[in-house]
């Protein structure tokens, strides 16, 4: 694949992910990771999404800050940090093909949770379930850039109001993305040097275009329609990552 084509795909992926998230509220990572893992590989693809997710969530955090449950944030955020360490270890020990399969499987599991799996968990209360949700979120975000589903399972079981969940996820995404990105760099599980330098401005530009486009389209596009598109894209990408990883094993 030529560098220009790769940059175009990355920019379009970032734009689409940001646009659909603006329309449906679904995770930026669920949409971006499947494509970028296939294009850039399981390490670089997730690393790029980790960095972009920090910017995307930081912008959203500012707009919903009054709805954030900062007490819950202070419980879950440290757990995200701890949960990232086993994810970094797994990245370092797995070969590219098994790692790509792992990323694809985690994406499909996350997708199943988003579709409706979280509703089957019994009600919970107290700090321990919140910490467990944070640990799982930190691990999944480091491997596959999808912290949201694990935290959503806990939040739904703890009966968070939807507005609180949607808002509190944003600063948690900032923390999980930043922690995953920095630990990979510091512990040798990833490197910005392996990523084409031109990719970063292309991806950031695409993301901002997607946010702006989503803001305009949100007046006309039904939320449920955007959600269905997001689910189809995420599911297809997760399957593609698994298939490509399995083929690479041979």
Automatic annotation (TrEMBL):
- Protein transport among keywords: no
Main localization category: membrane
Q: How does it sit in the membrane?
A: Multi-pass membrane protein
Which Pfam families does this chain map to?
TauE (PF01925)
Q: InterPro entries attached here?
A: TM_pro_TauE-like, TSUP
Would you tell me the Gene Ontology cellular component terms?
plasma membrane
Subcellular compartments:
Cell membrane
Q: Which UniProt keywords apply?
A: Cell membrane, Membrane, Transmembrane, Transmembrane helix, Transport
- Give the family from UniProt: Belongs to the 4-toluene sulfonate uptake permease (TSUP) (TC 2.A.102) family.
Q: What is this protein called?
A: Probable membrane transporter protein
- What species is this protein from? Corynebacterium mendelii
């Amino acid at each position: 694949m030529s560098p220009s084509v790769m940059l175009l795909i990355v920019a379009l992926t970032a734009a689409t992910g940001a646009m659909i998230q603006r329309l449906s509220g679904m995770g930026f990572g669920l949409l971006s990771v499947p494509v970028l893992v296939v294009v850039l590989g399981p390490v670089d693809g997730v690393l790029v999404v980790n960095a972009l997710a920090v910017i995307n969530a930081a912008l959203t955090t500012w707009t919903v800050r009054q709805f954030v449950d900062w007490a819950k944030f202070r419980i879950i955020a440290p757990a995200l940090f701890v949960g990232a360490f086993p994810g970094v270890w797994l990245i370092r020990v797995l070969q590219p093909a098994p790692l790509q399969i792992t990323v694809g499987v985690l994406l499909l599991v996350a997708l199943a949770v988003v579709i409706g799996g979280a509703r089957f968990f019994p009600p919970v209360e107290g700090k321990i379930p919140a910490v467990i949700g944070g640990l799982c979120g930190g691990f999944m975000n480091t491997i596959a850039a999808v912290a949201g589903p694990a935290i959503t399972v806990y939040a739904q079981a703890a009966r968070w109001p939807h507005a609180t969940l949607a808002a509190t996820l944003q600063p948690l995404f900032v923390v999980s993305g930043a922690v995953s990105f920095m630990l990979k760099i510091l512990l040798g599980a990833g490197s910005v040097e392996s990523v084409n330098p031109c990719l970063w401005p292309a991806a950031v530009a695409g993301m901002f275009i997607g946010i702006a486009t989503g803001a305009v389209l949100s007046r006309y596009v039904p939320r449920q329609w955007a959600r269905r598109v997001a689910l189809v894209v995420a599911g297809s990408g997760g399957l593609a990552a698994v298939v490509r990883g399995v083929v690479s094993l041979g």
